[in-house]
Amino acid sequence: MMISPEGYYEEYLKGKTKEQIMTAIRGLKQEIGRLKNTMESPDYGQEEIVHPSEDTRLHWTREYLERAKQAYAEVGGTYTLSKSEEKAADFDSNMDFISKIIFSIGGYFGGYRSYVIELSDGLRAYTKLWEDEEPLVLLDEDDEPFTKETFIAALADLHIGEWRRRYSTLVLLHSM
Questions:
Q1: 52 and which of 56, 63, 145, 176 could share a cystine (Cβ 3.0–4.6 Å)?
Q2: 120 part of a folded domain
Q3: What is the spatial order of strands in the sheet that 111-118 belongs to?
Q4: pTM for this structure?
């Protein structure tokens, strides 16, 4: 069971020294890294997901980390972002300047389809196969059409600034 960030503070941070809180911060960052590595593995999802899921645990660990940083400031600490945190914050602060996203799905012999999302004046989405364009309607979780603002907010929830530069689909086989 996950607890609220305030519950986390009360149980693990309240009354601690700067050094103890910084140790908790390092532990939370390690847990985030471990969870992301698990979820980014090519064979993730092959085994049953334990509850709470890695996704849920990752979300709440991020919340705990933010609360721990706040607690650190409350006891007089000045938190310095790591290089990877600076990179993620820089990406997040520049998301409003994204004008177009293009991605393709398909294979070498089977062809592929490109998906284009234009964010310049509002939101326009379409699929592109060769020169033909087919409009797409992007709906949020409430089946409402995305606006540029809601799309950027949903994109922010993906934490793209934290992503690796490259991913491999190579699955290593383990001998038994």
A1: 56
A2: yes
A3: 100-107, 111-118, 124-129, 132-136
A4: 0.77
